[in-house]
Design brief:
Elements lengths: L21 H8 L14 H4 L13 H16 L4 H11 L7 H9 L3 E2 L7 E2 L1 H11 L3 E11 L4 E6 L3 E9 H8 L10 E6 L11 E6 L28
Antiparallel strand pairs: 1-2, 3-4, 3-6, 4-5, 6-7
Amino acid sequence: MPGLAFEWPETEQCPNCPCCFTELCQRGAARVKECTGCVRPEYRARVWGCPCSSRLTRGTAAWRAERLRATVRATECPLPPCVEVVLRALAQGEVSSDRQALALLRVGGFVAEPTDEVFTITELGEVYLNARSDLRFPACLEVLAVDRTARLAQVVVGAWDTNRPVPVLLDQLTDATGLAAEELPGVWLDAEANCHAQEPDDVVLTRIRIAGPLPAGFMDGESGTAVRSLAPAGGEQA
């Protein structure tokens, strides 16, 4: 497992947290298992909950993976209606006493229980509800580059913004396509995307697959970027 050979250097404290050293946090932020997945078992308690790699910290691999999980759950295997209605109530600032539904939502990371015992919706719960309500669109992607150290790929999503590459977990692309990391740059893919996202980090791609051959005249001569007609896909139906 990557990282198990780490020895603990006592003199390289990370400037952003009290629990790790800099190289560990850089590696942990790039891995879904966070810093705890990059150290030997005897060190895991020491780095548990490190904010530099936490799923609650925007931009980490764990954060991206959680957003993907919530989106897939919303679009492919939604919560039972009786549970989802509780989540929607919390999103409106209401209080719920349905302990069974709240317990299921808490396990899923969609709600949190502060010290006053009043459950509140989490960012992940908002991602789930947005994925349930917003339309998702077929999108043509081009992989521009991969960064093995950061475990990210930079992808142009033509249906979203041809000028701002979207960061995507490298493991998501290799798992979806069966291609090695070095084979991805220049590859065209099809996927579904939340094209109403405001920032690249907020774009979540699902149903990724290798694109079929491009038809004649498909390429935009000025930008060299693919342009496809859009049709809504997924999302909650009215």
